[in-house]
Write a structure and sequence with these properties.
Helix content is 39%, strand content 8%. It is α/β, with parallel strands linked by helices and 374 residues long. This is Lipase_GDSL domain-containing protein.
Length: 374
């Protein structure tokens, strides 16, 4: 009799903990907002450019074996996060058709997107150089439009979204890239940081109001280690570079400034929405280890020089960018951290994703990961 009671008790415990693992410790869908660091095809589908280079090889060559609209040789951070939770890669919003199952999530990110609306840049005579007008607020509008297809009643939405992860970014990098690339100074750009951070926290707040409770908000990468920045802002002064990594100190300090302001903004949101789990994704420090020790992460060809480009010290040539005439892709992208001078390789994105899902670069931590990243 005792054996039967103990066995029944064991089964009930197993059932209880099994349900906890599948409900509270696992994401069942992901909704992603952002720019080219996480776009899985929206920019391509938007028709913003007639012949975008990301529509053809070598983009996508490593994992998909064909171009998918991702600005890399393969998978992105959002792809690795989805895989870690046993979810399919997110379909781009602009590819959705009636009757298609998108219950496991949707990607709203668009390459070239900004946190601030396009009008902000038009007023500053920068509108002509924007890749897209599909800013963060536009992407938020897409989500609101789609929401009625995901759930109808408040109870149904609450039950659905409490098992969903909302990724708000990375976004904001292009708000700085556009003016930086046409001669804007760090001092000038610092003044726009509160506006950019405000747009990100406003969108995060809006998603919480729509029912989101699990939100991951990434900061900016160390732009001073990016091939495009190293090329455009090349300096004859050795003191402008950090000796350990060869990155531009002032531009990395700018990234840190943005990230610190974003963390403060998220802390304010946590106080306003104590029921929500607002997670800061530290892209900066998740990436820095492979700049410190490239070979430890398999980057035997380096981290500052792009795999695909048209020559120059960092293999970034604005007149022969990756995919354009005069450019060439390396034979082994996984030995590089930088893909095309602006974006990273699949191998680098995998390192960042591992730092988020396994720790310690998500604060507070993401839910337990049932699967390993491969």
């Amino acid at each position: 009799m005792k054996v039967l009671v103990l066995f029944s008790f064991y089964l009930s415990l197993e059932s209880f903990y099994g349900s906890v693992l599948t409900s509270s410790l696992h994401y069942e869908s992901i909704f992603n907002f952002g720019d080219s660091l996480s776009d899985t095809g929206n920019f391509l589908l938007s028709g913003a450019l007639a012949f975008p280079v990301i529509a053809k090889l070598p983009y996508g060559e490593t994992f998909f074996r064909h171009a998918t609209g991702r600005c890399s040789d393969g998978r992105l951070v959002v792809d690795f996060i989805a895989e870690a939770y046993g979810l399919p890669h997110l379909p781009p919003y602009l590819a959705l058709t009636k009757g298609k199952n998108f219950q496991h999530g949707v990607n709203f990110a668009v390459a070239g997107a900004t946190a601030l609306d396009s009008e902000f840049f038009s007023q500053r005579h920068l509108g002509a150089i924007l890749w897209t007008n599909n800013s963060l607020s536009v992407q938020l509008g897409w989500f609101k439009k789609l929401k009625s297809s995901l759930c109808t009643t408040k109870q149904e939405c609450d039950n659905y979204f409490k098992k969903s992860l909302f990724i708000v970014g990375e976004i904001g990098g292009n708000d700085y890239n556009y003016p930086f690339f046409v001669g804007g100074s760090i001092k000038q750009l610092r003044n726009s940081v509160p506006l950019v951070v405000g747009a990100i926290t406003k969108a995060t707040s809006a998603l919480i109001e729509e029912g989101a409770v699990e939100l991951l908000v990434p900061g900016n990468l160390p732009i001073g280690c990016s091939s495009v920045y190293l090329t455009l802002f090349k300096s004859p002064n050795k003191s402008d570079y950090d000796q350990r990594n060869g990155c531009l100190k002032a531009h990395n300090a700018f990234s840190k400034y943005h990230n610190n302001q974003l963390k403060k903004g998220l802390q304010t949101l946590r106080q306003k929405y104590p029921h929500a789990n607002i997670i800061y994704a530290d892209y900066y420090h998740a990436a820095m280890p492979f700049f410190h020790s490239p070979k430890r992460y398999g980057f035997y060809s380096g981290t500052l020089r792009a795999c695909c480009g048209g020559g120059g010290p960092y293999n970034f040539n604005n007149s022969a960018r990756c995919g354009h005439i005069g450019s060439k892709a390396c034979q082994n992208p996984s030995s590089y951290a930088n893909w095309d001078g602006i974006h990273l390789t699949e191998a680098a994105y995998r390192v960042i994703a591992m730092g988020l899902v396994k720790g310690p670069y998500a604060s507070p931590p993401l839910k337990s990961v049932p699967l390993s990243l491969v």
